Amino acid sequence: MAQGLRKDLLTGLIAIIAMTVVLGLVYPLVITGVSQVVFPRAANGSKVSFDGRTVGSHLIGQSFLHPLLKNGKPVKNEEGEQVLVPDKGYFQPRPSATGYSGNVTFFGNAGPNSLELREEIREELAAYLKLNKPYDHSLTRADVPVDAVTQSASGVDPDISEANAQIQAHRIAAVRQIPLSKVEELISQNTDSRSLGVLGEPGVNVLEVNIALDQEAPLK
Question: What is the pTM of this model?
């Protein structure tokens, strides 16, 4: 009996070691090697560079904010933190429950009957109109696309809809003092097509279109 037990323990130990080596070492190395050869950019995080430095990822969204100033000094909230507001010279991403933190990905999962969600959307809608309507007086609540006032499932969606970008283009053109047609051209150049040609909708990559703007017409 003891001999049989030792045999079973030895067999189990060998199996654990073998599976650890195959699945914990060999398999990851093979997959890493294949990905580096076939998809090198994606395998390394789809990094985006500007002026010789990495500024983000094509796959991960980020905020474009700046400190709110009053009399030339940063405004702070009750907690003593700087108040940040959208930078009018840049396209703004869709709302994010995480503030576009790269450390966590989640979204608010309140249902359509949630009063909290309704209030949140009202606030996002008001903020969006306040930011963009001064540059396009014809803009109405009904014109605002859904992605402009709702969160994505990940909280770090790098794209906005073409309709969202077209609305923001009026503000961008005015602030950067360039023709609206030039902004629209940059939008078109930085629009991702549907996945596999059929899945989802085209989306404008916010980081890359903002980089294109800085290259075309740097903020003064």
Answer: 0.78
